[in-house]
Specification:
With 151 residues, the protein is of the alpha/beta class. 40% of the residues lie in helices and 13% in strands. It has six helices and four strands. Strand 1, helix 1 and strand 2 (32-37) form a beta-alpha-beta unit. The structure holds 4-nitrophenyl phosphate. The site of 4-nitrophenyl phosphate (4NP) has 11 residues, from loops.
Amino acid sequence: MAKILMVCLGNICRSPLAEGILKSKLPESLFTIDSAGTANYHVGNSPDKRSISVAKKYGIDISNLKGRQFSVKDFELFDIIYVMDESNYRNVMNLARNEQDKNKVTFILNEIYPNQNYDVPDPYYGGEQGFENVFKMIDEACSIIADKLKP
Ligand code: 4NP
């Protein structure tokens, strides 16, 4: 079944939320769902406290996830690569080796707003409300993704 990778910059705020939320909506045994960051700043780190906290509020535990950096090999390991924003999109597309790799990459919010290439805003430098907003956007997108992929 489908293998899905969520990508942001640091892999501590948005993409761990996306990983946890999508995992909560699909049967674990049938899907591979992971996340990565285009940067290496937070490799091995737990998600940001504010992401852990907003996820917990909605019944999702992401506290055990660990940051890792996106690599070219991920084009072989995953079928769909969802990026959170335009800068993630450029960074991932720059690593693509061919059309097949490029065709795997899409903006997660295009699931709600097709072809609009809207960003999930980076909440890192803001307050708690930013994390709440980001949770809701990603949750809505993941509901659509899960409905499409569910057996
Ligand atoms: P993320 O947020 O890409 O959603 O994980 C960020 C986390 C860390 C940094 C930037 C964005 N940083 O600059 O360290």
